Amino acid sequence: MHGILKSIVLNLYLGSLDRFRCSWPRCGKEFTVASRLTTHFRIHSGKPPYLCGYKDCQKAFHTSSSLSHHRVVHTDQGLRPYVCR
Fold first, then answer.
1. Residue 21, Cα to own-chain centre: how many angstroms?
2. Are 29 and 40 contacting, i.e. CB atoms less than 8 angstroms apart?
3. Terminus of the chain with fewer CB atoms < 10 Å: N or C?
4. Where is the C2H2-type domain (predicted)?
5. Segment 16-29, tens digit of pLDDT
């Protein structure tokens, strides 16, 4: 599909899907999957639930995937020889 036709088809398709809207004041972000809204809502609701757990690292994350990505900084292989600040 080309340009405008593709845009019209995508808008028609996406417009027909159920939307899950964030109810936080002045946010209103929409998602097509309920679990994405749940993950997004953690941004508004306070302390992130996923803690690093390495000694002397106080980092916390809103998603488990972000925590997994962060853990690389603690590897001994030197993949990312950075330390937490």
1. 15
2. yes
3. C
4. 20-49, 50-79
5. 556 788 998 999 89
Q: How far is CA 54 from CA 2, 59, 66, 73, 79, in A?
A: 50, 9, 15, 10, 17
Asked if residue 54 lies in contact with residue 64, where contact means CB atoms within 8 angstroms, the answer is no
Residue 39 has pLDDT above 80, yes or no: yes
> pLDDT category, 82, cuts 50, 70, 90?
low
DSSP state of 60: E
Neighbouring CB atoms inside 10 A of 80's CB total 13
Identify the CATH class of 47-85: alpha beta
The label of the residue with tokens 């936080």 reads 24
What pLDDT, on a 0 to 100 scale, did the predictor assign at position 62? 86
Tell me how far apart the alpha carbons of residues 57 and 83 are, in angstroms, rounded to a whole number: 9
Burial zone of 37 (CB within 10 Å; 0-12 exposed, 13-18 middle, 19+ buried): middle
Confidence at 81, pLDDT banded by 50, 70, 90: low
